[in-house]
Design the sequence.
């Protein structure tokens, strides 16, 4: 997994105090843990830290980064194509 290059994460809550598991048929179930993810890199994990309550929900974020956004990481920069 590649994290943000400049270490500036834009954290959002993707699943607040819940869990989706095969054990419960992938239905939403209460949990002490929330899943957070970064909008600018593929970093994500589950945590029960108190700071989660200060993060926005993913559904509340109005502007999602796109590949045309300069802050969106372009992982293809490092790949060079050989010309025939």
Sequence:
């Amino acid at each position: 997994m590649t994290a943000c290059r400049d270490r500036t994460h834009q954290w959002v809550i993707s699943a607040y105090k819940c869990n989706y598991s095969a054990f419960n048929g992938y239905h939403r179930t209460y949990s002490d843990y929330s899943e957070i993810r970064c909008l600018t890199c593929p970093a994500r994990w589950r945590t029960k830290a108190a700071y989660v309550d200060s993060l926005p929900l993913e559904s509340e974020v109005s502007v999602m980064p796109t590949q045309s956004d300069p802050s969106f990481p372009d992982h293809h920069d490092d790949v060079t194509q050989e010309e025939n």
About this structure: The radius of gyration is 16 Å. Residues 47 and 71 are 25 Å apart (CA to CA). Confidence is low (pLDDT under 50) at residues 71-84.
